[in-house]
Write a structure and sequence with these properties.
- The structure is a homodimer.
- Chain A has helices at about 35-40, 45-50, 85-90, 110-120, 135-145, 160-170, 180-195, 210, 215-220, 240-255, 275-280, 305-315, 325-340, 345-360, and strands at about 5, 15, 30-35, 80, 95-100, 125-130, 150-155, 175, 200, 230-235, 265-270, 320-325, 370-375, 390.
- Chain A is α/β, with parallel strands linked by helices.
- Chain A has a domain at about 80-105 and about 210-380: Rossmann fold.
- In chain A, the strands form three sheets. A six-stranded mixed beta sheet of chain A has the order 4-5-13-10-11-12, with helices on both faces. The first copy, chain A, has a four-stranded parallel beta sheet with strand order 8-7-6-9, sandwiched between helices. A three-stranded antiparallel beta sheet of chain A has the order 2-1-3.
- At the A-B interface, helix 5, strand 7, helix 6, strand 8 and helix 7 of A face helix 5, strand 7, helix 6, strand 8 and helix 7 of B.
- Strand 14 of chain A pairs parallel with strand 8 (about 175) of chain B.
C-alpha cells in the first residue's frame, strides 16, 4: 500500500512502517505518513463510491498492506442525519448528526479497533494490552478475538458496565482499577514493559488514529466532498479530533477537498476539561486535571498524551474548546431522543449542549453547516435514563393517556 | 409509488391502500401488494446500487408514497459477514452472519419501525399503541418521537431493561405488565378500541412487515442477486421470516433472482416453540404455548397471529423448524463472540446452535451457503454474560497472564 513512514509530529524523527514502533524517543506519539502522490494516482472518488459501505473503502489511505490481514465486522459509513426538527427548534437551518452508534460494538471505538487490530495482526502481534474508559476495551477485545490475538484490558471500576460484558464474552483478560484511566494506564505501561506485550494504549501505537480518521473521510464524502463549517467532537483522549484533522489535510493534499477546513470544536465536561483550560490560556499543552469526574465517562481523561495535537487541530482551524455541565449534557441527551429519535451517549449529547452555547454566544451562525459527532449509542448507557413505568396486571385496562404537553 | 392494494392472504379480500386498515374481516393480517410490472419498469439493479446504503434504496418496493413522509435514521444495509474462523471449526465453507445489531436502536426492529412509522405518518396517525417484548417498543418509541406521533407501549415486566430506557427517553407512554406479550396484547387491543388509537401490534397493521422484508432484499443484493441455500431466522412473531419470504417472491416476480428460494428455518427456544410443534405435526397453524419462557426473550411469543404465514414460508421453501435450549443458545453466543468477535443477542445465537444441530443431522450440507440472521446486538443483553474481573489498586502490578487454553 501507500504508507511511507512513521513520523514524529514533535521532533520530525522518522521510523520505518515495517517495524513495530510505539512512541518517538522524544516521547511523542507517531503518525503514519503516506506517499500521497501515489494515493492521488491510484484512488478516485468514483472508485471509492463503488465500494462497500464500510471504512475499508478508503484503503489507499489506510495502513494495512495485505488485505488478508483485515479484521472487519462491517464498521463504518455510519449515518449522517439532518436534524430538521431540532434545527427548527434552535433556529438553525443546517444541523447534522454523524451517528457513530450504528457500528459494531455501538461506538466509534470500533474504527480504531478494526484498523489497529488489523495492523497488529499484520505485524505479528500475539498479545496486546490497553487501559480504557470502557468502550475501547470492549471493541478491541472483540476485534482481537476475531484476529486470534490475546487482549488484556484494564478499566476504572466506575466505568459503564456493558463493556465488561464485551470483554468477558470475547475472552479478553479484564481487570478493574479503583481509580481513573490514568491509573489504569500506569498499570498497563508497567505490564507491557515486563511482559513484552504490544502497547495498544491511546496514541502509543500509530494505527488506531488511522481508523478514527475515517470519520473525517466519510464526512467529506457524505457532504459531497464539500466541507461543513463546524464539527463538534467530544474530547477525551482526542484521537478522533486529531484523526479528522489528519484526514482532512490528507484529502486537501490529494486535491479532493478545497478551501478552509471546518472549525473543530473540542467538547469536554466541566468535571474534566484540561483541553478547555489550555485553550483558554492559549497554551500548546494541557495540565493534569485533578479530581476528574463526569457522567460522560468516555471523556474522563485528566491528561491526554496527544493534547498538543488536539490543541493544534483546534488552533489551526480557528476552532474552540467548550466545557459542558452534566446537567446540560443530560438535558441535551433527552432533547435528541424526544425530538429526533436519536438515543445517543452522553458524550455525543454534550456536543448538542455545546452547540446551543456557541449559538447563543454568536460563535456559530444559525445558517452554518454544523455537525455533532455522536461517538456511541445511548443503549450502552441505560443508567443515564430514569424510567419508572406503572405495573399492570393481566386483564387491566389502560388509564387515560396524559395530555400532551 | 407502486402499491396497488392490501390483500388478505387467507380469504383474498382486498382493501384500498389509501385508507387505514388493520386485520381483514376474516381476522387475518393483510399484506401490501405492488404493481410489480411497474416496479420492473422503474427500478433497476444499477439504480439501486448507486443509492445510499440504507433500506430506502428499495423505495419502489416500499409503501411510502411521498418521500417527505419518510422517517429515517439511516437504518439498513447491515453487514453480511463471512464467518471463516467459525466455519473452519464447524467444517463449513460458507457460513455467513447478517448482523442486524448494526442499526439504530441495535435491533432489526428499527426496520419495521422506520417503514411502519413513516407510513403511519403518511396516513395521518396521531397516536399509536403496541405490545412488545421490548425491542420493538424501544424502536417504535424513538421513530414515533422523530415523527411527532404519540406512542403507547405495553411490555412484560420480565422483558430486558434497556428498551425501557429507550421508551422513557423518547417520551413514549410505557406500561409494564405482570405477564407475557400475549397479556400485553390483550390490554392494547382493549385500549385501541376505546381510544381509537392506531393499532401497531405485530401484523395488525400491514406496513411493519414491509420494513422487515428489506432484510431479504439486502441479502439478495449482498449475495450478488444469487440466493444462499439456507437462512436461519429466530422466530417469535415471525414478521421477519414472512417478510424475507415475501421479498424473495417479489424479486423473483420482477426477474431479479431465479431458481429455488433458500430453505427458511424457523428457530425457536425449547421453552416456547409453538411453530416447531406445528411443523412437526405438519399443521398449518400453531397452538398457544403454555408457560412460555426462555433467555431469548424476543422470541417468547406463545401464539403468533401470523403463524400460518410463517409455516407457509417454511413448507414452501422445504425449510424446517428447530427448537434450541437456553444452554445451547448461551454457548453459541459465547462461541460467536470469542471466535468471530460478534457479540450477538441470544435470539441470533440460537441460529448458530440450530445450524450445528442441522449440520449434525445432515439436513445442512457443509458446503452450502448458510446465513445466520442475528436480529440484534448483544450489548442490549448484558445480563446474558457473566463477568467478575479482579479489582486492582492504583500502583498495583498485573498478575501473570493465565496460559491460553
Amino acid at each position: 500500500m501507500f504508507t511511507s513512514r512513521l513520523e514524529c509530529p514533535k521532533c520530525s524523527a522518522t521510523y520505518a512502517c515495517e517495524e513495530i514502533h510505539h512512541l518517538c524517543t522524544c516521547g511523542s506519539p507517531l503518525l503514519v505518513r503516506y506517499d500521497l502522490d501515489k494515493v492521488r494516482e491510484n484512488m478516485s472518488k468514483e472508485k471509492v463510491a463503488g465500494r462497500p459501505a464500510d471504512l475499508w473503502r478508503y484503503r489507499e489511505l489506510l495502513p494495512v498492506v495485505d488485505k488478508e490481514n483485515i479484521v472487519t465486522m462491517g464498521e463504518g459509513m455510519t449515518p449522517l442525519l439532518k436534524l430538521d426538527r431540532l434545527g427548527r427548534e434552535m433556529g438553525m437551518t443546517n444541523l447534522y448528526l454523524k451517528d457513530e452508534g450504528v457500528i459494531p460494538s455501538g461506538t466509534f471505538k470500533a474504527r480504531g479497533a478494526a484498523v489497529g487490530v488489523s495492523r497488529a495482526r499484520e505485524l505479528g502481534v500475539k498479545t496486546l494490552a490497553m487501559p480504557t474508559n470502557g468502550n475501547a476495551g470492549g471493541a478491541w477485545a472483540l476485534y482481537c478475538a476475531k484476529a486470534g490475538i490475546e487482549c488484556v484490558v484494564v478499566m476504572p471500576q466506575d466505568a459503564p458496565q456493558i463493556p465488561r460484558s464485551e470483554c468477558a464474552i470475547a475472552n479478553a483478560t479484564l481487570y478493574l482499577v479503583n481509580g481513573l484511566i490514568s491509573d489504569a494506564g500506569k498499570i498497563v505501561a508497567q505490564a507491557v514493559k515486563e511482559n513484552h506485550w504490544y502497547d495498544a494504549s491511546t496514541l502509543k501505537e500509530p494505527y488506531r488514529i488511522e481508523g478514527k480518521k475515517t470519520m473525517g473521510l466519510e464526512l467529506a464524502e457524505q457532504f459531497g466532498w464539500e466541507m461543513p463549517d463546524v464539527i463538534l467532537y467530544p474530547t477525551g483522549g482526542g484521537v478522533g479530533i486529531i484523526g479528522i484533522y489528519k484526514a482532512l489535510n490528507e484529502l486537501k493534499e490529494i486535491g479532493w477537498i478545497q478551501g478552509r477546513l471546518p472549525r473543530l470544536v473540542a467538547v469536554q465536561a466541566t468535571g474534566c476539561a484540561p483541553i478547555v483550560r489550555a485553550w483558554e490560556a492559549k497554551a500548546r499543552e494541557s495540565e493534569f486535571w485533578e479530581n476528574a469526574g463526569t457522567c460522560a465517562f468516555g471523556i474522563t481523561v485528566p491528561k491526554a498524551i496527544g493534547d498538543f495535537l488536539v490543541l493544534e487541530a483546534v488552533y489551526d482551524t480557528d476552532g474552540c474548546a467548550v466545557a459542558i455541565s452534566d446537567e446540560d449534557t443530560l438535558a441535551a441527551e433527552s432533547m435528541l431522543a424526544s425530538i429526533e429519535g436519536a438515543f445517543v451517549c452522553p458524550e455525543g449529547a454534550a456536543c448538542l449542549a455545546a452547540t446551543r452555547q456557541l449559538l447563543a454566544d454568536g460563535w456559530i451562525d444559525p445558517n452554518e453547516r454544523v455537525v455533532l459527532l455522536n461517538t456511541g449509542c445511548g443503549i450502552k448507557y441505560p443508567e443515564t435514563v430514569k424510567s419508572n413505568p406503572p405495573l399492570l396486571q393481566p386483564g387491566d385496562t389502560l388509564p387515560e393517556l396524559p395530555a400532551s404537553p
